[in-house]
Design a protein that fits this description.
By secondary structure, this protein is α+β, with helices and mostly antiparallel strands. It is built from four helices and 13 strands. Helix 2 runs antiparallel to helix 3, helix 2 runs parallel beside helix 4 and helix 3 packs across helix 4.
């Protein structure tokens, strides 16, 4: 009798999952968010949004990918994720990337994982400090990573970078680069309110003093007018106990 009960329980669970999402692919890998986003408690239900937001570049644990078919429209793949602190929820799977990287030097973006393939469109957008997201990896001809990024069509890029050549996967650096990107956008916006401008300036000051290179230098260069100099001039101390010598009078004395 017990095996039959277990079979019914498994069948019920499988049926429920199929009704809710259909295709299920399980995983325990980590992913990073491509931009700031909300999290749903129930897949496909905007009204079930959790009272939190994930920041751009935030690392989450991927539990599984599920295909959700709404009443109208095409199916959408959702990722069930676990957030630091233990909370779980759903986000659209395409909103996540394998990992994040930061451009730290003279990196070149190629069309394919081979230097003979030529430079990809958007190569000029890869300036030092740029945040990019890893789409794929290739190891047949050394270490290559396919990345994408950019806030709009003008700054968009996608192509292959040769691993170790002017890029870093360091999580602390990626986090600092995202903070710099957000603060710089506000700092350079002439329409930003004084309060948000002050907050952005405070962030740049913090990055200038504590962020790893090259973000610390970028923050200092951008907000140089609002930051103290590296070596402020030191005024010479005057010893108040020593009085200057009295100068002799040049006026002739009368007899």
């Amino acid at each position: 009798m017990k095996p039959f009960v277990l079979f019914l329980a498994a069948l019920t669970l499988f049926t429920a999952e199929c009704k809710q999402g259909g295709k299920i692919s399980q995983s325990t890998e980590t992913r990073v968010t491509r931009f700031r986003m909300g999290v749903l408690k129930t897949m496909g239900d905007p009204k079930s949004a959790l009272p939190l937001s994930l920041e751009k570049g935030e690392v989450v644990t991927l539990d599984r990918i599920e295909s959700y078919k709404p009443a109208q429209g095409a199916a959408v793949e959702y990722a069930k994720i676990k957030i630091a602190g233990g909370q779980e929820g759903y986000v659209v799977a395409s909103y996540l990337a394998k990992s994040g990287v930061v451009i730290t030097g003279d990196a070149k973006l190629y069309q394919r994982p081979n230097i003979t393939s030529g430079l990809a469109r958007g190569n000029s957008n890869l300036t030092v400090g740029t945040v990019a997201f890893v789409e794929n990896e290739e190891f047949s001809d050394g270490e290559w990573v396919e990345v994408s990024g950019g806030a709009n069509s003008a700054s968009y890029f996608r192509g292959w970078l040769k691993g170790g050549a002017g890029i870093s996967k360091d999580t602390e650096l990626v986090t600092a680069a995202v903070r710099f990107e957000q603060a710089a956008e506000i700092y350079k916006n002439p329409k930003a309110s004084s309060k948000t401008k002050e907050e952005a300036t405070a962030t740049l000051k913090d990055l200038a003093s504590s962020a790893p290179a090259p973000i610390n230098q970028l923050a200092r260069e951008l907000a140089s007018g609002d930051l103290p100099p590296d070596n402020p001039p030191v005024e010479p101390k005057r010893d108040e106990g020593i009085q200057p010598l009295e100068q002799p009078s040049t006026t002739p004395q009368s007899n």
